[in-house]
Amino acid sequence: MSDLAMIEIFQDIREIYDFTAPCGELLPYVDFFSETSAEKCDSYFDQGHASVTMFESWTPTFYINLSGGYLIDVGGKRSSINDDQDILILRNGTVKRHNRPEDRIFTVKFYPGGLEAVLGFNQISMANQVITLDHILPASLLGSIRAAASFEDRVRITETYLLGARKGRATDHYTRLVREAIGEYTAAGMQLNTSEVAERLFITSKSINRYFNRVIGVAPKTYFSVLRARTALTAMVSDRSNFKPWEYGYYDPAHFYKDVFKFTGRKISEVF
Q: Domains in the chain, please, with CATH?
């Protein structure tokens, strides 16, 4: 692993950001709000880091630019983000953001399907794209977020807008079922296959496949594999001596190692 890059999960990329959870009404749809911390970034660059690599998650994410431009690799292509450009990406594959010491980014990360539930924009057409955010949000709102005096003020402004957009919007049947399916899979310790999750929701395997492809843009088997690899690898990094792959639905360590390589492109032996 290069000492010039921070790699999600293997290293704590959260250490350069301030985080907060959304208000209760947005909890089913928004994972978190975050903002680059000037103080934490100084330490980050002092350690020689220059980029952050993030793995597949299928989570629509806003990057609102509070300072200068930067480079980001999405879908195998490098994009140059201008000083006044805000973007939306899906994170359906590996993403690498090339940081600068003066970078300041305000981030809103949605759960899969969350963007559609709140704002009505389906995520499946966003794969491997860098979308200019003023195609999604009013320019006046983005200006207010950038001009706000603090992280807390930016969160408040964004939450107010999202709550207003969500109000009166009927819960989509597909989105609700996908959220419930992910909940069932997680609650069962990631031990269930797609058919077993479908049975718990009283739907067919054909239906659950249709729902996931309609809401997230990928089959449930593929999404569950990503979620399991991400969750299990995070647990292993956190407490390697007590980690047991079978607690996350893996047959044995070899099965887990194979999934980690598929998910990250890295062998466990190369990073530990």
A: 5-166 (2.60.120.10), 173-271 (1.10.10.60)
Contact 123, 60 (CB under 8 A): yes
Instruction: Pick the closest to residue 216 from 265, 260, 203, 224 (CA basis).
Output: 224
| Cα dihedral 124, 125, 130, 131 in deg (nearest 10) | -110
Amino acid at 211: Y
The closest alpha carbon to 107, from 63, 70, 69, belongs to 63
Specify the amino acid at residue 129.
Q
Closest CA to 91 of 65, 119, 64, 53: 53
Burial of 202 (0-12, 13-18, 19+ CB in 10 A): exposed
pLDDT in tens, 169-214: 887 899 999 999 999 999 999 999 999 999 999 999 999 999 999 9
Q: How many residues does the chain have?
A: 272
| Look-up of token digits 């890295």 | 266
Q: Would the pLDDT of 221 be above 80? A: yes
128-152 confidence digits (pLDDT tens): 999 999 999 999 999 999 999 999 9
DSSP 8-state secondary structure symbol assigned to residue 260:
H
CA distance 259 to 248: 12
Convert the pLDDT of each residue in 32-51 to its tens digit: 999 988 776 666 555 556 78
The dihedrals phi and psi of 40, each to the nearest 5 degrees, come to: -70, -30
Sheet containing 5-7: give its strands across: 5-7, 51-54, 95-98, 70-74, 77-81
